[in-house]
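Entry type: protein chain
Record version: 2
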Amino acid sequence: MSFKSIEGMIPPTVVPFDENENIDHEAFRAEVRFLYASDIDGISSGGSTSEGAFLSDKELSTCLEILIEENEKNIPIVAGIIRNSTREVVKAGLEARSIGADALLVTPVFYYGAILEGNYAFFKEIGLKVGLPIIIYNVVPTNLISTRALEKLSEIDEIIGIKQVDPVVLAEMVSVLGNRIKIYGACDALLYGSYVSGACGAISALVTVAPRLCVEQWQAFKSGDQAKAVEIHKKILPLVKCYSEKPFPGKIKELLNIQGRKVGKARRPNLEPTAEEKAQMRTCLELAGLI
């Protein structure tokens, strides 16, 4: 299987926790099975939606092992890695590779913002030592990857794509680099617009919240049924507003809980949504036909 050939809907999983904030294995399996049954094109765990900054290497490995055990359709598995040194990313990446992950989704370092040369050295060493395809997760405010920087980083053999949150930058990256690497949409409110701009799919929390609708929209877009794709966009856009402000992981989990997908609460210090926010979530889920 070549990850370079994969496009489409790649949901990042949430990670359910029990009352002691340990991973709830059975709840995680149930959620993973739900996502796999939604005809997704790939799956990821360990990024922002997974509360990856709060997961230990051992916990990330546990999540990846469950993804692989449940992967009956043999779709690509992407290990999200949020660490703040080359050494720690390499360590987690090697473990992910030994378990069977197909690619890495890696954030640039976030505590000390790096210059272009530092980012190049960071991703170059990860690529050489881990030897898996790398998708850059361009979400760190103190170390955003520009189109110019991506031109240089794309020279690294292992870098196959970027998960881009800013839709304007995404359009620019597609225009300049779309024939060299894959640009994945991650601006949840404008996923449809990112497809129009040339994104090859999405690695997005919205795909986690509404996987079947997002898959249906992507298929409509690819087949040329733009009216249907726009109709779905209007249906799911209110869901994005439910979690577009902090606390992000807790709100995503609540949207799943309301659907009957029991995933518990976010790890502290993330907070639970307020009663008013939960009521809004229920209304938006009803309008989208998800409950």
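Comment: The first helix runs from residue 25 to 36.
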